[in-house]
Amino acid sequence: MNTQPFLENAEDLYQNAPFGYMTVRADGLIVNVNATLLKWLGYEWEEILLQKSFQDLLDMGGKIYFETHMMPMLLMQGEISEINIELKGKASIKLPTLVNASRIHDQSALETYFRFSILDITQRKSYELELIKARQEAEQTIQRLKQINAELEQFASIASHDLQAPLRTISGLIGLSEKKGHFPVDSEVTKYFSLIKRNAQRMKLMIGDLLEYARIDSEELPFEEFSLNEACEIGLEMIDDQVKESNAVITIPELPMVIGNKLQLARLFQNLFGNSIKYRSESDPVIRVAFEEKNDEIRVFVKDNGMGFEEDLADQVFGFMKRLHSHDSIPGTGIGLSACKRILAIHGGTIGATSEPGKGSTFYFTLPR
Amino acid sequence: MSIAITKRNNVKIFGKGTQAIVFAHGYGCDQKMWRIITPAFEKDYRIILFDHVGSGNSDQSAYDFEKYSSLKGYAEDLNEILYSLDLQKVIFVGHSVSSMIGVLAAADRPELYEKLILIGPSPCYINDNEYFGGFSYKDIDELIATLESNYLGWSSFIAPVIIGNPELPEYSEELKNSFCAMNPDIAKHFAKVTFLGDNREDLSRVCTSTLIIQCHPDVIAPVRVGEFVHKKIPDSKYVLLNSAGHCPHLTAPDQVISSIRSYLTT
Predict the structure, then answer these.
(1) Is B165 within 8 Å of A67 when comparing Cβ atoms?
(2) Could you tell me which residue ranges the AB hydrolase-1 domain spans (chain B) (predicted)?
């Protein structure tokens, strides 16, 4: 085996290197060019040498760039690097390139010359175009989403003000009429108005829940590290009245620290505890919180002794405005659990439930550790 | 002096003289391009530099696609700058597209200008029958396409490795940033306005005495175009530099300075 270093032939290296080489005068005239570059551009040696200038290989954008940036930089600092410019070859050949150039330091030369090394970046260029395209598409999508979000926020504001106002008037007038004794006892009119009142209440509830749901996405979401117990406590405070009225007993162990939005996770507990109380059985509600830590997630359980439901329906309960009960039997909007699902999606977690009619339900959710 | 206009055009004033020289940069550049030239005039003149709206550190929010759909919008800005600084009889030095901006401004308000100095002017880049501008419509379309598809190539993509010049340390950095500073939509619009414009008719309206500084060869504003401008502006002088390219104020600053000097002293 030959262990001598390979002896390079300088001329062969110049002509056939996998790189384009070119020497130009300060005005751009090409005074030397290698075989590789000629091949790329489709020109014969005689067609280029002392016949064309570097600018002749450029389109108008390239020419402007060359005259206003490349050449001034070359003359001032003696070199340029990684200039991305497209060269025009013969017969509409277009060659995307990366150009480096430097001044030739030859004291004896009367004129200034520059050596250009030219790298073919056709493949890289097509990837770049793909990237630009993908970015444009992503930007358009973001624009569209922003618009949709803005419209949703506007919708929420309409719901809060414009829908609630007439509802308040209706409820207020019915209340006033009752107070003034406009409705005779046991009359059909009284029955109708009581129905109107109940429906107005229901609508108020729905608007309130819808607003709450809309707010999940529109809020600024600061994430922080805190103990899940804090979220639990805030959630409980939000339904303090229901807890007291129902004699519910809630046990909460010491829960782990999490990173998330405290207020949203408090709303999550508020919804889960609230549901356990709302869908209670004959006995006083008993709610137990438990958790387990796995490799990459925390799983929290909220177990109750409520009425439970068929486990086949577990997926349905998280659907938007999906309910297992009529509003007349147990008032509700079917928004609370879908709001929980949304909150967990934002936190990178999931939610699910196991249940059996008459034996209570267990709702569980996961959060990344 | 109006703060609004100063901010809009990032106006900078310095120098010890009383007579004002206003320097206006060309397409894709900003006022920093004059850095090599201005020191030669600081002692004897008041130097006024500015960025066209949409370029350099001008107020981007002031860019109005309608107003700047012709060079007139820029010419109005120029006259507003002079008016707000209470300047009259200024010497105006414009490079490339700003030559024509100066022509339009001086044709409208001749009392504001004593002399015009136009470096690489072109009233019309596109060939038209007998007229040779150096470019075809196809060239301009290509340019717009380049700006659309390869804007990155002109700015961030080339940015990473540019080594400073020991003599002019911060200079190459500035050169590099001037393209990056331009919003792509504005760059495209400005390119269309610049390279599709035809201001040949406006040249004869100029009654201010004018110097045309021409390079050879200059592929953007060829010699024939410079000669045309000289022929059309009645009171004009023409000087052909011994330098190639389109930016002699960068590549042959000594020749530019001496041409301006000798013109101003005659």
Answers:
(1) no
(2) 20-128
Q: Is B220 on the interface with A (CB under 8 A)?
A: yes
Each domain of chain A, given as residue ranges in start order, spans: 15-120, 123-218, 222-369
A63 contact B CB<8A: yes
Facing residue for A83 by CB, picked from B140, B158, B250: B158
* Min Cα separation B184/chain A (Å): 13
State whether residue B162 sits within 8 Å of chain A by CB.
Answer: yes
The answer to whether B172 is a known catalytic residue is no
Residue B64 CA to residue B53 CA, distance in Å, equals: 9
pLDDT 10s digit of each residue in chain A, 369 long?
678 888 889 999 999 999 999 999 988 999 999 999 999 999 999 999 999 999 999 988 788 878 877 888 888 888 888 788 889 999 888 998 889 999 998 767 778 899 999 999 888 878 877 887 888 899 999 999 888 878 877 777 777 778 888 888 888 898 898 888 888 878 888 888 888 888 888 888 888 877 777 777 666 678 899 999 999 999 998 888 889 999 999 999 999 999 999 988 999 999 999 999 999 999 999 999 999 998 889 999 999 999 999 988 888 888 877 888 877 778 777 888 988 999 999 899 999 999 999 899 999 999 998
CA B82 to chain centre: 16
B262 an active-site residue? Answer: no
Domain at B22, CATH number: 3.40.50.1820
Class of domain A15-120: alpha beta
Question: Does the A222-369 domain belong in CATH 3.40.50.1580?
Answer: no
Task: Give the side-chain half-sphere CA count within 13 A for A36.
Answer: 16
Of A26, A69, A129, the CB nearest to B149: A129
Question: A33 with A89: CB under 8 angstroms?
Answer: no
Tell me the CATH class for A123-218. Answer: mainly alpha
Q: Is A67 in CB contact (< 8 Å) with chain B?
A: yes
All residues at 6 or more sequence positions from A50 whose CB lies less than 8 Å from its CB, including other chains: A29, A30, A31
Complex ipTM value:
0.74
Active-site option among B202, B218, B230, B243: B218
For residue A152, give both structure tokens.
Answer: 């949703």
Q: Which domain holds residue B236?
A: 3-123+199-265
The rounded distance, in Å, linking the Cα atoms of A202 and A207 is 9
- B32 in helix, strand or coil? helix
Scanning the structure block, which residue is given the tokens 């206009």? B5
Phi, psi torsion values for A157, nearest 5 degrees: -70, -35
CA angle in degrees (0–180, nearest 5) for A158-A164-A167: 140
Tell me the chain A residues in contact with residue B154 when contact means C-beta distances shorter than 8 Å.
61, 65
Q: What letter represents residue B247's amino acid?
A: C
